[in-house]
Amino acid sequence: QVQLVESGGGLVQPGGSLRLSCVVSGTRFSIWPMAWYRQAPGKQRELVAFIRVGGSTNYADSVNGRFTISRDNAKNTVPLQMNSLKSEDTAVYYCTAGGISNSGSYSPAYWGQGTQVTVSS
């Protein structure tokens, strides 16, 4: 049974930083492309960042240069470092494991339960 468990969310002031973590179990972690999504109240779920098996990454324009996704295949974790946070980054953040199509687009197969990030003064 594949399980993804996120942690690290919380309340932070604008301009601050948070580091989310996702621990994956029940599968061979190293074979999965991984991604973080987010969903703000009243908005559609958004792909924030994904990382391929080989370690290359893609980011949404809204977070490019501020967020960094990485993976640790020894610990089965996918951290998301978030810097220079803005109020519009407020959302529930979800960790996913999935696949990448021939066209290069990411498609999630498994989801975590989500962790709340609130950016407010």
Question: How would you characterize this protein structure?
Answer:
The chain has 121 residues and is mainly beta. It is 0% helix and 48% strand. The strands form two sheets. Strands 2, 4, 5, 6, 9, 10 and 11 form a seven-stranded mixed β-sheet that branches. A four-stranded antiparallel β-sheet has the order 1-3-8-7, with no helix packed on it. Strand 4 and strand 5 form a beta hairpin. The mean pLDDT is 96.
Number of strands: 11
CA radius of gyration = 14 Å
Unreliably modeled segments: none
* Main sheet properties: 7 strands, mixed
Q: Alpha-carbon distance between the termini?
A: 40 Å
Secondary-structure element order, as H and E? EEEEEEEEEEE
Class from helix and strand fractions: mainly beta
Mean pLDDT over all positions: 96
The percent range for strand residues is over 45%
The residue fraction in helices comes out at under 10%
- Shape summary: globular
Number of helices: 0
Summarize, please.
The protein is built from no helices and eleven strands. It is mainly beta and 121 residues long.
Which tags fit this structure?
121 residues, mainly beta, four-stranded antiparallel β-sheet, 0% helix, globular
Helix/strand layout:
Elements: E1 3-7, E2 10-12, E3 18-25, E4 34-39, E5 46-51, E6 57-59, E7 67-69, E8 80-82, E9 91-100, E10 106-111, E11 115-119
